[in-house]
Amino acid sequence: MSKQTIVVFGATGKQGGSVVKSLLQDPKSASKFHVKAVTRDVSKDSAKSLEALGAEVVSADLDKPETLSSVIKGAYGVFSVTNFLEKLNAAPEIVQGKAVADICKAEGVQHLVWSSLLNVTELTGGKLKNVHHFDSKAEVEAYIRDIGVPATFFLAGYFMSNLPGMSIREMPDGNWGLGLPTPANAPMPLFAAELDTGKFVKGIFLNKDKVLGERIYGATAYYTPTQIIEEFKESYPKVAATTSYNELPAEVYKSILGSIGLPPSFQEEMSENHQLFSVAGYFGGANLDASHAIVGEPLTTWKQYIANNPAFAAIKS
């Protein structure tokens, strides 16, 4: 029996790369699926490493819709993801996501997995209306549903990679700490995107009948900032006595982002993004059990993620 082709966009990024690796390194999925890894530059080392795993690496550009049809044609499934941070602009994401959906519809793709997020403006009744990288993905999700493409919607949680060296770091006074504009008891769905996206998406492709039309929430568990910093202190006892969590006023947090060159619009966006945890919940309060049920392997815990993180090399005992 011939293998079904899965097209993976963003194949050299955190989410897409994890999907390619997970599909190819698991004997069950590798025997069922042929993986077509899409990147703009097939000559870079990250692309060649996917080729070495057995992926067919192909070139296409989400900004050039005319390059997409040939890579999607004949595919059974597609994993589609866009990168807001590349341009700090939601409008191109919407165009890109809808373009992939249109081609999936035209080519008869049987299972599209869209990397989506919730519409924060709607979820919060307009209280938080500047989290554009959520609202844009939600708009594409609504479009996919409207045009009738068979699809499942994967919602990635809060990236663990956002914390080491960025939010958890050594302060000017020599102490370590975590500072966010988020209450200490707010639930944050932590997610090791580069390690665990593929575990979820593989489960989605292997369980189509169970998940078609559903949202799958990608996170290991809900952690509060208090739990995050306590587990960090347990992992790095050398600095435990002088490490703390500090809830930052929104303006202070935005000024920190401004100090590293991020524009005011993105400062506001990220401030509201972190307020979402306590205002309505990153996933709107959704339980993770059903999403975990399709994953056939352990997910990465926060302690595992930070165990040998290079950002903390200087304080490893």
Automatic annotation (TrEMBL):
It comes from the Eukaryota. It is found in: Cytoplasm, Perinuclear region; Nucleus. GO terms for cellular component: nucleus; perinuclear region of cytoplasm. The keyword Nucleus applies. Transmembrane segments: none annotated. Keywords: Cytoplasm, NADP, Nucleus. Residues 3-306 form the NmrA-like domain. Its main location: cytoplasm. PANTHER family: NITROGEN METABOLITE REPRESSION PROTEIN NMRA FAMILY MEMBER, NMRA-LIKE DOMAIN-CONTAINING PROTEIN-RELATED. Belongs to the NmrA-type oxidoreductase family. This is NmrA-like family domain-containing protein 1. It comes from Dothidotthia symphoricarpi CBS 119687.
